[in-house]
Amino acid sequence: MRTREVIIGAIVGSVLLFVVGIVIGHYAIPKSTDESKSNVAYLNTECTTTTYDAEWDTYRNKYLQEAVESSCNKATCNTEDLPRTYISYHLNGKSIDIDGQLDDPAWLEVPWTDSFMDIRGPEYPKPYFDTKVKVRWDNERLYVGARMEETHFWGNITEDESLVWTENAFEVYVVPDGSLHNYKELQISVMNVTWDLMLKKAYIDFGTPCDKSEAFDSSWNSDMRKATFTDGIVNDINSTGTFWSAEWSFSFERLAQHTDRPAGKLKPDENEAWFFIFARPEYKYKVVNGKYVKDESAPTEWWSWQPLYTVNLHLPSRFGLVQFKKKMNDKTFKWEKWHLYRALFEVFEAEHKYKSINGMFIDDMSQLQLAPKIMSTSCVDLSVTLGDGNFTVTAISKLDSNLPQAHIRDDRYVWFTDRV
Ligand SMILES: *[C@@H]1O[C@H](CO)[C@@H](O)[C@H](O)[C@H]1NC(C)=O
Ligand SMILES: *[C@@H]1O[C@H](CO)[C@@H](O)[C@H](O)[C@H]1NC(C)=O
Ligand SMILES: *[C@@H]1O[C@H](CO)[C@@H](O)[C@H](O)[C@H]1NC(C)=O
Ligand SMILES: *[C@@H]1O[C@H](CO)[C@@H](O)[C@H](O)[C@H]1NC(C)=O
After folding, report:
1. I want to staple 303 with a disulfide (CB 3.0 to 4.6 A). Which of 2, 116, 251, 355 is the partner?
2. How far is the CA of 293 from the centre of ligand 2 (A)?
3. If we measure between CA atoms, which residue out of 46, 58, 341 comes closest to residue 204?
4. What are the chain's domains?
5. E strand or H helix at 26, and its extent?
6. Which atom of ligand 3 is nearest to the CA of 292?
7. Is the pLDDT of residue 11 over 70?
């Protein structure tokens, strides 16, 4: 009798725990369907909070761990902690025919980027479809070619300037002036439908709360030339293939609009490096009545060139870097400003984390848990100036006295001033 009660009690208890577990799980697990850009507190694009979440901590802790283990020295300050890099070569008189196929000699002679990975980082599963990009430039335009493995081609959005990223698409975010503000976002779907817009700054940098409509400007127009190619028929369930490609170009004149680039310098100088992210959302489909239908209940994959360590593309200080070169035999990414950016980003992220815990920014950098190598001052001299609810970090290079002072503001805006 006693034994039976105990067993029944145990069964009832297990069932209850199981149900409670499911309910908790339901609310605790972030859903990564098409809400994936907005469902994690810190990441939200709805501008309701700037809480720095667990993923942010993971990123910081991992960075600090690595930072403690290495020491800063002048020889490596410009290469340590680099995100992924790519060298884009000038067309040097060649041309690219925008027909969706990346078969022009100008494409064939340059390498691909590294394959995309899960946007949350290399410790997440490797994407089951490969994605690679090439980038070239001439005096007027930037050329981007993307190759995406895919077996089933489908899409429903037919109007440009709509939410193209809610279907399988390829995206480019580009920062033409290094300020991390007024960056441009370009999306293209397998249906050859596009959206181009300008982000005045990342959503999170509007503070709490912000008006989302203030964040982006969809009236900005890239004057793009575009084409797509698929090796299967789009929206035909009986046709499968192996990949699709997007071939795209944009004028530097439009990309530079609303940026800090001076009028005479709309295209990059040789060896200038720009922050870029390339990314690809991959949605699952169902077949209903002989037609493809987006499977709204399945999780979305977000694959990107450089991982941003969280499911949010709007973190331009975590983008990868593309360097513009003319000489095809110059294969080394080498950017003299990186040590300044790296130090500014480190203090920027640490200040925001500090504020999420303590409710304010602080000018005493010893309170910020900065990586020792950043604090060691062998590469840069750093200082923080506080205003009323804002901050400015200043970095002065100790590697190169010709470099101007670099600054980052609490809303991620970066600028350089000439040293006096
Ligand atoms: C895509 O759109 C461009 C510009 O409207 C057009 O030139 C091209 O032929 C279209 N189709 C494909 C499959 O690329
Ligand atoms: C696909 O194949 C099935 C079976 O052969 C056929 O009934 C259907 O019409 C085909 N669908 C399309 C879109 O061609
Ligand atoms: C296409 O979009 C329309 C309008 O949102 C929707 O009613 C329809 O179900 C969609 N079709 C597919 C195949 O997803
Ligand atoms: C920062 O705060 C100070 C007041 O302490 C103010 O004068 C300044 O304009 C603020 N800067 C920005 C960019 O908001």
Report:
1. 116
2. 16
3. 46
4. 33-81+339-420 (no CATH), 83-325 (2.60.40.1190)
5. helix 2-28
6. 13
7. no
